[in-house]
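If you are new to this repository, start here. Below is one unmodified record pulled from the training split, so you can see the exact layout before writing a loader.
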Amino acid sequence: MLHPHWRMAALGLSLLSLSSSSACSAAEHHDPFETKLGAPPRAHVEPPIIVEPGPGVRENGEIAFAVHWFEGSLDEALAMADAQGKLVFVDVGAYWCPPCHELDEKVFTDERVATWLREHAIALHVDAEKGEGPELVDRYRVQAYPTLLVLEASGVEKDRIVDFHPSEALIEMLAAIAEGGNVLAKLAAAVEAAPDDLEARFELGHAYALAAKRELAEAEFARVMAGDPDNAKRLASKVLADRATFFVYKLDRDPDATIAALEQLQREFPTSKEAIAAYRTIGRAHCKQGREAEAIAALQAMVATDLADTALAASFGWFSFRERCGPEAGLAAVLGGIAQAPEDADLRYVEAELQRMLGEPDLALAAIQAAAALEPDNAYFKRQVRRFEALARGEPDPIAEH
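And here is the target side for that same chain:
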């Protein structure tokens, strides 16, 4: 299943023109009524050549992709790749994911990226939360969005790239993967060149964790913890967060053990950035167990760590939207943030999503219009304004609930 806003935005590059032979044919056709009356035939006027603009973001926010996205399933894409001797490139993301929008608008509209993919791969967009997306996420143990999977035609993963990368960097990484190189190998080489560099070791371990290579990640994490036991380098807290999130929560699928591990992180390093972020995962784990009140309490505790930080209020709102958990409480936090920072477009957007969830389409429309007014050049907000206008008219949401 493809992202709705990706698919509805996918416009092709076309050139509409008439050949000289067809133009002659048109010029020779006279109106029979004019001929009967003795009127001379009308002079032929060449129709204008209409050239649609190329790939990019339109003035109304719609996206014209340079990349040609395969319209079928993953299995169908693998079969085509096998027949053509190509790889399969799978962009796994979600419509609410900002780096995914950035890829759409800045990278997948780039003809250089499109050319590389056309020559080497079958390209597929997958929404992680709809259609075959959840099964694919589970199959390849996708840990973050966007994740760009590069698969052999057999379906075996060759490598992956995580997060936004500009066009040139992405092409370089894809070429290295296609030629047998390995993105992880570069990080491993950096560690080999400087074995005492704990930051390099953490980056390698983190990359292994994102790729669900648990044993390799743990080997690096153990070295990091031994070298930074008191979190002086701010690495130990990152290791504990990665272990709890990627291994215990996502791989072991043990919500209660995840909560225990993150609460231990908060006790050991209470002022770390990871300790604050841990509240979201704790809340998520409570939601998975049906404990909405405990989840809300965790997010409220997060906001209380710094009442002046409106980003925490936005985080609460996105949590409630994403998890479908405590939307009233999330909205209250967001509205409190807006009162402090009325110019924050992200707060306005999450307010729109929450108002929609709570059955208030008119308030939702007003909120997204406010977000778009604050960032008039934001293509994504332009698209969302049209979506919320349709919702306010009672039309179905083009982005189906997950």
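Two things worth knowing about this chain: The longest strand covers residues 87-93. Residues 259 and 282 are 5 Å apart (CA to CA).
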